[in-house]
Structures are given as C-alpha cells and as structure tokens.
What we know:
Elements: H1 18-24, E1 29-31, E2 40-44, E3 47-51, E4 57-62, H2 72-78, E5 89-93, H3 99-107, E6 112-116, H4 120-129, H5 143-149, E7 154-159, H6 174-182, E8 184-195, H7 199-212, E9 215-220, E10 226-232, H8 239-246, H9 256-261, E11 264-265
Parallel strand pairs: 5-6, 5-7, 7-8
Antiparallel strand pairs: 1-2, 2-3, 3-4, 8-10, 9-10, 9-11
Amino acid sequence: MTDIISPMPSNTPPFIDLAWFKMAQPQATRINCSVQHSCEVFEYDSLRWICTADGAVQSMLFTEDHSYPVLHYIKALLCSLVFVDKPGKMLNLGLGSGAIERYVESHHPEIAMTSIEPEVEMITLSKECFYLDSRYPVRNQSAESFLHDNQQQFDLIICDIHCPPEQPNPIETMTFLQNLTNALLPQGVVAINFLAESESHIIDMLVRLRQIFEQVTLIDVLRQQNIVFYCSNNPFPEPSELNLKAALPVYGNIQAETIISQLIWLPE
C-alpha cells in the first residue's frame, strides 16, 4: 500500500476505514474555526472531519455534496427511515456535525426534525465548518434532560451519544431506554449507535433493549465495535418488504439495500 492517497473522482467518496485515516491524517489540512473546542477539524481531498482529543473521528463531510452521509454508521442510522412509512417527525439525539440533519433536509424535507446537542461549541462548529444552515434550530440540552421533560412523540429517533471514556453512557441505563420508548409513536422506530467494548458488552446491551422494546434487530457496522440497534414496540415489516423498499432510488445515498440485507434478525 502506498503512502499517497489518489485524489477521489468527483462525487465518489471513498470507503473510509482505519487504513485510510492512517494515510490521510498526515497529509490533511487543519481547518481553523472560531470556536474553542477539544476537537479539531481536518480536510483532505474533498473530505472534512472532526477528530476528538483521543484521535477518534466523530463526524465527516463530503465537500462535493454536503448532504451525503460519508461514514457507514451514519448511513446505518439513517436506514431507520426504511422501517417507517411516511415518517412525519424525527428526533436526533446528538448533533455531531449535522450529518443527519443535512441528509434529511435535502432528501426528506417533509420530515419535521428536532435536534438535541449538549455542547454549544459543537452546534457552532456544525454551522461554521460543516455547512449546517445557520438558521437551523438546535436545542442545547442533554439527551437525558430532553427525554425526561419531553411530552412529544416521534416516528423516528436517532440516538448517537458520545461520552468521555470515564463517564457512563446514558443509553445503557433502563431509565433512559424507558424514556426513549415513551417518546416513540406506536409505529415508531429508534436507531441507536452503540460503541461496543466486547462481545459481552453487546449482549448486555441487547438484554437491556429487549426488556424495554418488543422488537430489536441490529447490524454490525465494524467488527463488533460499532453496532447499530433498531428497536420498536410495533412489529417490524417483513425482511422481504424492507429489502424491496430499501432498493428504492430515494435511499441510494445511504446504501440502504446493502445495509438492510445485512441486518441480524433475532429470534422472538
């Protein structure tokens, strides 16, 4: 493997993995932002990303198409759209750089979005460096606080919460999960991004989810490290029905046909 990355063809983002970053990071340009934050923003060959203090990539933008969801787990979270017919209301817990919002506003403008982000610096960063509309409303609040006080219900909830290693993630508590299910409409689906430490960690989380939700399926995004769970209290559509819907052109940018075909269906 060479040390130099060939430029990307226009409108064709590469598959992003650890090897790509090891090559790209030394060649990337650091983007200066007005906001003071522990994260840094880099750009290389039409890709711009947020790098956390511990070196993890939190979010990524394709500068040729701001609505394109580059990272595979973001595509997997967005595949929750396939599960619900004509969703009207969507809740995103964890703004990141606004990848979910940019995609939904561009491809599904009929969906009313509510976005929650606890860090005001991240909200500023998403609008200043990642092309989230400056007028887009984001509630500066923790997911736990929002769900605790929430009286609304949603067709879709996306949960992508990042916590420092020394802090417990609220998504692993029964109180948080119960508040999640309370925020779902009867036909609603929640998609949870889960950073797994081990196989037993995945199993423990799965047990918690099945105590709260009647339906749970999942996809292993990155070799048991990045799991996306799909949960509902309404029966999921049949796999054949989901596969047909996922093949529709409207879901092409999130590679829904591939992702839905890789779902791991659990026994009742």
